[in-house]
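Notes from hallway chat w/ T.B., transcribed later so I don't forget. T.B. wanted the structure written out for a chain they're using in a teaching module, and asked if we could keep both sequence and structure tokens in one place. Agreed to drop them here.
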Amino acid sequence: MSSVTISKDLCTSFKVSKVFSHTETPPITSLDYDDSGQFLISTSVDECIQLYDITKGKHVKPVYSKKYGCHLAKFTHNQKNCIYASTKGDDNTIRYLSLSDNSYIRYFRGHKGFVNSLEVSPKSDVFVSASLDHTTKLWDLRASNPQASIPSTARSSVAFDPSGEVVALSNVNEGVVKFLNVKMFDAEPFYVLQLPKGYQWDKVEFSNDSKFIMLSSSQYGHLLYDSFEFLEKGKLDGFTPIPQNEFASNGCASFTPDGKYVFSGNGLGNVCVWSLNPLDNNRQPVRGNFKPLAYLKGDARPRLCLWNPCFAQFTTADVSISMWIPEEAN
């Protein structure tokens, strides 16, 4: 398969290629791709995990979790397996599921409150969870008990850097992002980034090229920071707040795999595209506020947005799944 350079022209040419809708109004609460980019997984408020094959543009199957509910399904490094958080009753167990035969491999118990953030390391079989029980825990897929647990003010969100060696732990109430060494998870953070007062975000994310940290918000827009010097690079302008359902947003914005562009759903019913590429800005260093390159039309309610890690393709979602590819590929 030939490689494709992600460029300004490519980014502004995307069109919806496929739309999937399974029931009348099942708001979708999370999206995730496997490492190969072939498969996409979603969770929704109808207590169902949906699996898609991106390369075939095909819905593979539903996996129901009616007894426990489901949220934040994340692939492990085996595309046939995932973990996900529970949503019903007092069961806050994280479940490790085989998608091949719908059987549970392991249960991760320890949280006493709703798990609102869940991320798998890009390099190892380690994952991190943040809960409304005021703790953040480090886990290993091979063991049921947490490897480490630290206090964290609810509502916190977590992210791994591309090396898998650093975890960003962000908290809106404290207005900070704390950076932790995975190997010394329960030690003091090696850096604490102070955020602007009053800014409320939904997600913290590193770009794959390790240059940027993005604090994205479905209500307040997106802030960009240098991940080496921890300096604010600017705000992504032109964003309109997105209407929410009962689940807080966990991904309305997403970096392209090369880290040079950001795509985000918009409350106006389109997808904003911003360039962080100096080649698109007269070779000037990335700084200041950024105006959108384009507003892509094709999904009336793009509340969630996630780029494929391997292909020139991304997905938006709200009550349906919309898959986007460049116009020339349609």
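Follow-up for T.B.: The chain has a mean pLDDT of 91. Might be a good example for the class.
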